[in-house]
Amino acid sequence: xxxSSKVLFLGSGLLLSLVVYWLFGTxxxxxxxxxxxxxxxxxxPELQDSITALLQEPKVIKVxxxxxxxxxxxxxxxxxxxxxxxxxxxxTTESVEAAREIYAEFRKITQKPVHSIVYTHHHLDxxxxxxxxVENETSNKVDxxxxxxxxxxxxxxxxxxxxxxxxxVHQFGFQLDEHLVSHLRLRxxxxxxxxxxxxxxxxxxxxxxxxxxxxxxxxxIPGETSDHLAVWIxxxxxxxxxDNIYACFPNIYAVRGTPPRNSLTWSxxxxxxxxxxxxxxxxxxxxxxxxxxxxxxxxxxxxxGIRYVHDQTVRQINxxxxxxxxxxxxxxxxxxxxxxxxxxxxxxxxxxxxxxxEEYVGWFSxxxxxxxxxxxxxxxxxxxxxxxxxxxxxxxxxxxxxxxFQWALEVASFVxxxxxxxxxxxxxxxxxxxxxxxxxxxxxxRNFYLTAALDDFRLIDWTVDQTEAIQRMDITLILNLxxxxxxxEETHGLDMTIIIYFxxxxxxxxxxxxxxxLEVELVKTEHATHEPEKNNEKSNGKGRSYDAKIITTxxxxxxxxxxxxxxxxxxxxxxxxxxxxxxxxxxxFSYFQI
Length: 594
Fold this sequence. Notes:
globular; alpha/beta; seven-stranded mixed beta sheet; six-stranded mixed beta sheet; 24 helices; about 15% strand; about 600 residues
């Protein structure tokens, strides 16, 4: 092994890097476990203090008479509001298991049945536990309330499901061992996604939900999400704020991969919450707060923290600074930064500034070099030609030894993008990712770095079992998701139509590939017959308006999509009938990335 590129810069800070390379640098063959990669990782003291402050033992807190909040059972809280004969549940956590534990604790307080559930917004840590509050309510139907856009927002997130899944695994450290996770862990197995109980009652702006002994006002207050609701019980002075406030700087941009949240809208949401002049505030994360003065001051500080980052970002945009420059210098003044509700233990000011930049002016900073930039791989290839592999690796080791971990990561990545199997580049990346993780005061950033390090050594299991989600997903959505699987580059000049008729729901869909785009359309059931379409502009020469037709049930289709059943065997068994020939059908589906 040649050490010349490293020994030139040998110092105490490089010892671990060299050990890593000697152990794993030949390609990572010596790596057997996650501990081989991440053992000895430290937690920044400020991050540890934040997590200690946020962690709660599972308990039910009585806020006022008839209002109880369960904290510490899961990432999200769950609130029970008691009326004369029934109770109403607000938010249900991310876990049916956790929600069942909460349900049992609530039953120690009252045996009154559940009348309704309210979802403050569509995030999974508020809606996935609902089943626990419905499954035992056999004597009455439980209504579920939400904003009218909840279903649409949930479904739009499925369009980028694979990317979102990778982002969530990184953000929350799902595949980090328990002792490495510097965050409250979600109590849910996201490798087996499901569909939550969907709402059947919807509000647009405001709605009163009243049962004997309890009157709630559901108010649409967009902030963290555009479907966000607050719950106001005026006669108790009790405000349930959902996620429009929590004991961290707000997550105006979620690095797991979401559109930026509008910071002006969010600050106005907090202002609206403040205008209610609550005596008791119950967020959906963290502990309740009582005292009108304390709540007013808290909401004011939170609103101003959001506004500071927004206003100063806009100022720097107009000066002409690059978004990376704005993000690097974005710091709250000490009078705000010192407040416990503005600690950067979830959102970060720099990420929020970049999100605000994106929302106002998009991805282009105005520098013409960014108009048609090289791809990361192209740029790396040119750096390799310019400097050479040996020089880049030497610079990477030097930067790691000087604890310039960001530069070490960037330099090593020039090599690894061109030569992914280069063990020396991987070792430098590992040292840089470990170093960056140890510096973080934000758990999301730390989790991202550590998960990326494991992924470099192929220690992340990206397997997802979508069976349960597919079984409960709307069939129209399932078919529409096929649009994002089309291999457009293979369909130039293609004009092909498949008709699918689901006999169990008597619904007929046309799937049409034209101009390298898949169109999915619900059509009249007459298209399921052998009769040609009237006034049809396309004919395949056989007197019908399609190339092939499938007749089956939604159950069989879901089994095929989830790979629990072979399409060929379904045809053989007669559960799928094909008109137009199996060959055409096979060709059609060959154009999709399955």
